Amino acid sequence: MKYKVGVTLAMTAIAGFALVGPGVADSGFKNKYPDTTASKDCGDGDSIDYAGPLKMWPPNHKLQDVLMSATDGPSSNPADAASNETTLTVTVSLLDAVGGDGGPQHDPDFFFPSGPSDEGSPTASVPFQLRSERSGKGDGRTYDIHSDATFDGGMKRCSWDMQVVVPHDMRGGADW
Amino acid sequence: MSSCAHSQGRGVAVRRPALTGVALLLLVFSTTGCAVGGEVEGASPEPRADLAARAEVAAQNRAHPNADARKPSRHPRREGLGSGGKKAGASDVSASTADRPSRVRAARPFPPSATTRPTEWHQLASLKDPVADHGNGPAYADLTGFTVSEHDGELAASIDVAAVVPGQLADRAVQGVGIDFYRSSSDESDYQIFLDGGSRGWRAFLQTPDGFVDFPGTFSVHGRTLDVVVPWTAVGGRENAQVGVFSDWSSGVGRLSTDGTVREDLRPR
Questions:
Q1: Cα separation of A86 and A72, whole Å?
Q2: Which pTM does this prediction carry?
Q3: The complex's ipTM?
Q4: Does the pLDDT of residue A148 top 90, yes or no?
Q5: CB distance A57–B210 less than 8 Å?
Q6: B108 class by beta-carbon count within 10 Å (0-12 exposed, 13-18 middle, 19+ buried)
Q7: Chain B within 8 Å of A100 (Cβ-Cβ)?
């Protein structure tokens, strides 16, 4: 996995207290969600993981960085452990109430800066961006995100469908 | 709650189990005051209301009737008059107590409005936008002007609309007002102040190239004006840029409006 999250907490007493918070290695891709927020268990320790918001707010028309990754985890099965070669392909679709989106000046709605596919061992990672934009005519926007992964050098397949929403409004939103 | 306590909440959101102990320590420190460094956004599947600053809302805006039901006005200046017949934005400003703030900042002087701003504020840009060019929304969603000023390391942005802005919008009604700062050749802005209005009031967010950060300034809603003051450093420093404004409004049941300005050069140097 490209993201190594280090927690480096240090406290110093200088006219009070100074705190240095959790650190994220600079990988060039500024994903603000270094931790997995949703996962698909593909069995035998393998998984597809999403790091990003499940609900995007505010709907400010801007692209937000997220990350999908597939990891071939350790396994006690000798056949499974023989190869950690992993591939991942991500597709995104969305459906808005017609005429309610932000218009062409806010295209694209999603973007794969490094392409929608990756391969690696044991992890394949696909960073991408989703636009924080809602439909003004309905309940908001829903991004349907489909991931296809292969593990063990292509011997095993796993798919996952998940959704990220941009609500129209924050009625009922926690602390909102 | 202090800004330190706010960051403590963020840390808990990052990795709740691992930081439970640290969170307890921070809770102790938040009562004594502390500074936070090494800002890093954390994982949160839910939106981060704690990063935003609630608006201070003038009395006349708090008393606004159900603005959602109002039709676009052809007499914006008349609508801009306060209840006492005073010009909007010139008086009746006080902190809102209708909603409990999600966090309270250190006391700062209330930001002067564009119309009352002392002369030491230097105007950098001023744009006018046509009235009633915003579509099928209320007049308070209709941008009519935009002013950027600076003073002593701070930048003030004032957005004028065609009618008094409700302190709280009707149920399901939403308004988003964005101030985009372009500092590179990208079509996407590099910094953005986003003013989020809804039935629970108004909040200000700041998005930077590193993501959403604690809103570092003040935000007020008074009369027909939305006023924001932030340090120059919060939007990339006191350097030349382009700036643009947009306003979106939606009732959630079919009525929409959008309005925006062209990009304007900002040349503080």
A1: 7
A2: 0.73
A3: 0.76
A4: yes
A5: no
A6: exposed
A7: yes
Whether A24 contacts chain B with CB within 8 A: yes
Q: Which of B14, B9, B52, B8 is nearest to B203 (CA)?
A: B52
Tokens of A23: 């650190």
Two structure tokens written together for A76: 């006690």
Q: Which residues of A touch B189 (CB under 8 A)?
A: 62
* pLDDT over 60 (residue B247): yes
User: Is residue A33 less than 8 Å (CB to CB) from chain B?
Assistant: yes
Handedness of CA A22, A26, A31, A36 (dihedral sign): negative
- Token pair listed for A63: 């692209």
For the segment B177-200, the average pLDDT, to the nearest whole number, is 93
CB contact under 8 A, B45 and A136: no
Q: What sign for the dihedral angle of Cα B46, B50, B52, B56?
A: positive
The A156-167 sheet, strands edge to edge:
A117-120, A86-95, A140-151, A156-167
Number of neighbours of residue B230 by Cβ within 10 angstroms: 23
What confidence tier does B23 reach under pLDDT thresholds 50, 70, 90?
very low
